[in-house]
Amino acid sequence: MNAKLKLLKQLMQKTIDDIDAGNTTDDDESINAAIDVLSTLNNGIPRYSKRYLCDKVLHCSESCFNTYLSMGLIPDGYKEIGFKELRWSIKDMDKALEYRRKH
């Protein structure tokens, strides 16, 4: 087994042991963040269409999205089997979201 996978397994086992022993915080924000990380680990990084990202994340038009692409605020999209259009992760929108907050 890869050394990084062994480390990951040990960390996850310690977390499980701490949960079982009641040695964890009940902070919903921390628990939700852990669920998100573990879901990503198990299912891969979810990717979304341009339309979804425009409507639900950036709250902008597709032409604005294309402008952010040309400015380098959004990286090139990913091709996925079964989809004709490119796809992006929510994390790919970080620079564009920061730019929108500042302007």
Description:
The protein has 103 residues and is an all-alpha fold. The protein has helices spanning 3-21, 28-43, 50-58, 62-71, 94-102. It starts with a helix and ends with a helix. The mean pLDDT is 90.
For the record, give the distance between the C-alpha atoms at the N and C termini, rounded to a whole number.
48 Å
Helix fraction, binned, reads: 55-70%
Overall number of strands? 0
Please trace the helix and strand order, writing H or E for each element.
Answer: HHHHH
Structural class estimated from helices and strands: mainly alpha
- Average pLDDT score: 90
DSSP summary: helix tally: 5
Give the DSSP E fraction (strand runs of 2 or more residues): under 5%
Low-confidence stretches: none
Rg (C-alpha, Å): 18 Å
Query: Mind describing the biggest β-sheet?
Result: none
Shape category: elongated
Keywords:
mainly alpha; 5 helices
Task: Offer a quick outline of the entry.
By secondary structure, the protein is mainly alpha-helical. Helices cover 61% and strands 0% of the residues.
Helices, strands, pairings?
Layout: H1 3-21, H2 28-43, H3 50-58, H4 62-71, H5 94-102
